[in-house]
Description:
Layout: E1 10-13, H1 22-39, H2 44-71, E2 73-76, E3 82-86, E4 89-93, E5 101-108, E6 115-122, E7 128-133, H3 139-148, E8 153-161, H4 162-168
Parallel strand pairs: 5-8
Antiparallel strand pairs: 1-2, 2-3, 3-4, 5-6, 6-7
Amino acid sequence: MTDHGITGGLKVAGRLPRLSGRKVAFPVIAYLIAAGLWLLRAQGGVRLLLLSLYFGVGLSVVGAYAWYARRARLCLAADGALSYRGFWGSRVLDVHPGEGKVVKAEVKWGANGPVGKQWLLLDARGQCQLRLSLRVFDETELDALAGHLDLPRCVVPGVMSEEEFKSKFSFER
Length: 173
């Protein structure tokens, strides 16, 4: 993907989220210890194979997430083209200055899932052109992009359920 000659444009890059605090650290450490102890029940070569798979899969998941966070980009070129590069590929978005809006929402994923902040770029029809997690992208940089595009910003009050979020905002790829 090209950055469409970003000279004079604006680039918003992804970042690795901070995974600190008891909410994340305790369950991860507890899972690693429990799974490691369970794997130690195996005997001989099977134990070595299972432990290798265990750590290999874990490192692969962490590596894929880090790769995505470093690869993710949102670029506004001087000619007005807005391009997005994410985990599943890249695309150029049809965004016109002053048409559409930016919506920020907090969503509870699943019945017992975490609450995540979302940044949505809606077109003039209200169709969601882009949904970004504020765990990966910096909110102030995205707000600067919205200001550069002269898009109004609104915040959905409270926390939405996943079902409510999906029904309220229709997604278009």
